[in-house]
Amino acid sequence: MEITTRMKIPKRGWQQELAKMAGCTVQTVINALHHGAAGKKAEKVRQLYKIKYGNL
User: Fold this and answer.
1) Of 40, 51, 48, the residue nearest 20 (C-alpha)
2) DSSP 39
3) Average pLDDT in the 2-7 region?
4) 3-class DSSP state for residue 54?
5) What stretch of H or E contains 32?
6) pLDDT tens digits for 19-49?
7) How many other β-carbons are positioned within 10 Å of the β-carbon of residue 54?
8) How far is Cα 32 from Cα 42, in angstroms, rounded to an integer?
9) Which DSSP symbol is given to 35?
């Protein structure tokens, strides 16, 4: 049995929107999601991403 999770496809400008919500820069969003950066801001970005768009 295969389990799949649904994920919303982020619209254009999602990185800027997420940065605004988290109170950080777009580069922090990129580092947190694409490069696995550590820290309080990066963790906040990952939590907001999961809430808004689903699992990573």
Assistant:
1) 48
2) S
3) 66
4) coil
5) helix 26-34
6) 999 999 999 999 999 999 999 999 999 999 9
7) 13
8) 5
9) S
* Amino acid sitting at position 6: R
CA distance to 2, 18, 22, per residue, from 33 (Å): 26, 11, 13
- Which residue reads 């991403």 in tokens? 49
SS3 24: coil
CB 24 within 8 A of CB 45: yes
Tokens of 33: 């999601």
**Nearest CA-CA partner of 55 in 8, 1, 3:** 8
Per-residue CA distances from 4 to 1, 7, 28 (Å): 10, 9, 29
Chain CA centroid to CA 50, Å: 6
